[in-house]
Predict the structure of ABC transporter domain-containing protein.
Amino acid sequence: AISVNNVTFKYHRNNVLDNFCAQVNAGEIYALLGPSGGGKTTLLRLILGRMNVQHGVIEVFGQQPGASNRRISYMPQNSALCMQFTVEQTLQYFMHIYRISSVEFSNRYTKLQKLLELPENECVINSLSGGQLRRLSLACALLNNPTMVILDEPTVGIDLLIIHNIWKYLNMRCRDGLTILFVTHYIEEATNAHKVGLMRNGRLLAEENPRKMIDRFKET
């Protein structure tokens, strides 16, 4: 689904990504694990086509970033929602963006509201807590039943029980073909992935099953 080959990206002459390689398979949950400032968010922006690749090659479903006509959703690290909208207005806005019918929207919203314990419809975005904002942002990313979803620190500030339910749901969706790439600096959250890419200073240090990775680093 995503192929990253020998990608180097410089910012002010500093390597944000240094000869980076990674492979995300369709129907897989892939975690990018590493500290803040390690180049994870830059990589996501390159994959989404929001920045141009300087050196190397990135393909998304066999095409250049941003060119795929498949449904690809993105949840950024910082909320990109209109702070003056209500919860209902926000979801209806994305309903129109995604061209979802009213009946289908109602069905999907009901499921997401139960899963994510979304705030009441009339709540204004700028009155929500950080955790509520994250849950609403995730709902917006999942609303169009995407083929791929890219998540930047998706569960920061969210209650542990809801996090458990989120990953249970996402694993179920992956069995139906959804591909997930997410960024985290929590090793515990990375265990929800099928594969983990350990990233530091713009380089991929290791890429394998999370349990194997944890065991290997315990030994060292």
The CA atoms of residues 168 and 192 lie 9 Å apart. The mean pLDDT is 91. The chain is about 35% helix and 25% strand. The helical segments are 40-48, 87-98, 102-116, 130-142, 160-175, 187-190, 210-219.
